[in-house]
């Protein structure tokens, strides 16, 4: 069946107009951090979860809270600590003397946007309670299973500086996150603007500009964005180059990679590229869309060996090498 790209393009342009309204609203309170906001929207439109890594004070919590207000969604924040229990996240059974029976008290996971602050501060049993909810989109408390609200998005933050008192996320669990975004410091001009804004008497309040139903509708439209077979092959080549670098004349990477991207990497690269094209108001994916989201999709999915660590080579260096070698369609 032939696809009318022009008609699809017009439709996507029309349907994605609300993105500008969200950006305009968030720009009132968040200075800079455009890539982070873009990645939050990609995760939201692709039904994925996002891991944000950055030092404290880079507006991670503010960005998530503001996004929740802009899309009229329920927001909750869980501060992960070493003494946190799974019941503190998902909820528990409470005995009611009045009813003489156990009733369910739902935990903070029952929200549209859940901020898991410093996820690596809690032990594995708490991390796995959260990750089960992320994967299954449901929670079991006692004998009852509850569906989580739609849209449901987990935004976990990690502080890269402190390693004491932290429990690193196992590779299989990190793989559940669609994107891992590293947040950089603002520029000098942006920092000056932040100071001015924070000292101002009237800090703007975020108003809802779309609803959660609009987001759910947009999710279905994002899947309609056209992905050509050549782009599909390009995505597969990128992921395969991380698994079998020697087949792509990347022999120097072979001793540095312990494992490459999983099939989730290919799926999420395609979905994120479609969402990125949607954010650009375009009805089809181009190679630049894939390259734009590649680092965020792949950086936590490539395992590096001790040899790579000793040589200070990160997964980002490897992605750079892969993108420079894999043939662009």
Report, as a whole number of angstroms, the end-to-end distance.
22 Å
The general outline is: globular
Strand content is 5-15%
- Report the CATH architecture of the largest domain: 3-Layer(aba) Sandwich
CATH-derived topology of the largest domain? Rossmann fold
What's the mean pLDDT score?
A: 85
Which class of secondary structure composition applies to the elements?
alpha/beta
Question: What's the SSE pattern?
Answer: HHHEHEHEEEHEEEHEHHHEHHEHH
> Helix coverage percent of residues?
40-55%
Overview of the molecule:
The structure is a single chain. With 329 residues, the chain is an alpha/beta fold. The chain has 2 domains: 33-198 and 209-216, P-loop containing nucleotide triphosphate hydrolases (Rossmann fold, 3-Layer(aba) Sandwich), CATH 3.40.50.300; 225-325, Orthogonal Bundle (Helicase, Ruva Protein, domain 3), CATH 1.10.8.80. The protein has 14 helices and 11 strands. Strands 2-5-8-1-9 form a 5-stranded parallel beta sheet. Strands 3-4 form a two-stranded antiparallel sheet. Strands 6-7 form a two-stranded antiparallel sheet. Helix 11 (263-279) crosses helix 12 and helix 12 (287-298) packs antiparallel against helix 14. It is globular and about 70 Å long. The two termini are 22 Å apart. The model has no long low-confidence stretch (mean pLDDT 85).
Task: Describe the structure in brief.
46% of the residues lie in helices and 15% in strands.
Key attributes of the depicted protein:
329 residues, alpha/beta, Rossmann fold, Helicase, Ruva Protein, domain 3, 2 domains, five-stranded parallel beta sheet, two-stranded antiparallel ribbon, 14 helices, 46% helix, 15% strand, globular
């Amino acid at each position: 069946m032939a696809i009318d790209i022009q008609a699809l393009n017009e439709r996507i342009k029309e349907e994605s107009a609300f993105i500008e309204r969200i950006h305009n609203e968030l720009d009132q309170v968040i200075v800079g951090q455009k890539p982070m906001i873009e990645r939050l929207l990609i995760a939201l439109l692709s039904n994925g979860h996002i891991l944000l890594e950055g030092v404290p004070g880079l507006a991670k919590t503010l960005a998530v809270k503001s996004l929740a207000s802009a899309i009229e969604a329920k927001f909750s924040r869980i501060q992960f600590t070493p003494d946190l229990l799974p019941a503190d996240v998902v909820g528990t059974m409470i005995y009611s003397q009045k009813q003489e029976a156990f009733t369910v008290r739902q935990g903070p996971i029952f929200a549209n946007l859940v901020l898991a602050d410093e996820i690596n501060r809690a032990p594995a049993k708490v991390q796995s309670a959260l990750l089960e909810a992320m994967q299954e989109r449901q929670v079991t408390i006692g004998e009852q299973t509850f569906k989580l609200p739609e849209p449901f998005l987990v935004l976990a933050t990690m502080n890269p500086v402190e390693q004491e008192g932290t429990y690193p996320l196992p590779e299989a669990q990190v793989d559940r996150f669609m994107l891992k975004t590293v947040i950089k410091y603002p520029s000098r001009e942006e920092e000056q603007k932040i100071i001015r804004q924070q000292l101002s008497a009237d800090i703007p309040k975020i108003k809802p500009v779309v609803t959660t139903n609009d987001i759910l509708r947009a999710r279905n439209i994002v899947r309609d964005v056209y992905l050509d077979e050549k782009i599909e092959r390009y995505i597969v080549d990128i992921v395969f180059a991380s698994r079998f670098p020697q087949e792509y004349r990347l022999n120097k990477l072979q001793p540095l990679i312990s494992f490459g991207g999983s099939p989730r990497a290919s799926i999420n690269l395609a979905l994120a590229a479609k969402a990125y094209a949607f954010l650009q108001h375009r009805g089809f994916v181009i190679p630049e869309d894939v390259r734009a989201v590649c680092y965020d999709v792949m950086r936590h999915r490539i395992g590096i060996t001790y040899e790579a660590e000793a040589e200070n080579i990160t997964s980002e260096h490897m992605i750079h090498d892969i993108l420079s070698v894999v043939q662009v369609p």
